[in-house]
Design a protein that fits this description.
The protein is mainly alpha-helical. The protein has one domain: Multidrug-efflux Transporter Regulator, Chain: A, Domain 2 (Orthogonal Bundle), CATH 1.10.1660. It has five helices and three strands. A three-stranded antiparallel sheet has the order 1-3-2. A hairpin with a 5-residue loop joins strand 2 and strand 3. Helix 2 crosses helix 4. The N terminus is likely disordered.
């Protein structure tokens, strides 16, 4: 039988894997409750829970087990809904499209930093 508190202490003191950064917030980031996110996005709380379970929207659980969201969650939920209704995508394909859109944004940001254009110059 292992000593759980000692094992937990070892896990907390281990360094982060190479290439990963640990960030600490200087000022606490405000979190939104499930009801607030549902109200701001215009969705039913059960649908928001479903999106969290499918991994389409990130959420954390507080000490009481309630979902808490980042302030950007209503915009992410609106994006999911636009993909669902506008393109008639199923939930699995929405996750793929969201990943691809995030990847495109990162690549375009890298191009902007290097000064390279992603579109060809005009022919005139």
């Amino acid at each position: 039988m292992t000593d759980r508190p000692a094992a937990a202490r070892r896990e907390r003191t281990q360094a982060a894997p190479a290439g990963m950064r640990v960030q600490y917030a200087i000022v606490p980031v405000p979190r939104l409750s499930l009801d607030t996110v549902a109200r701001r996005s215009g969705l039913h709380p059960d649908l928001v829970r479903r999106f969290v379970a499918l991994g389409l929207v990130d959420a954390d659980r507080d000490l009481a087990g309630r979902l808490s969201f980042a302030p950007t969650a209503p915009a992410a939920l609106a994006r999911v809904q636009r993909l669902r209704t506008g393109l008639c995508l199923n939930y699995a394909s929405i996750g793929l499209v969201l990943d691809l859109l995030d990847r495109i944004s990162l690549l375009e940001a890298a191009l902007r930093r290097t000064g390279t254009r992603s579109d060809p110059p005009p022919w005139t």
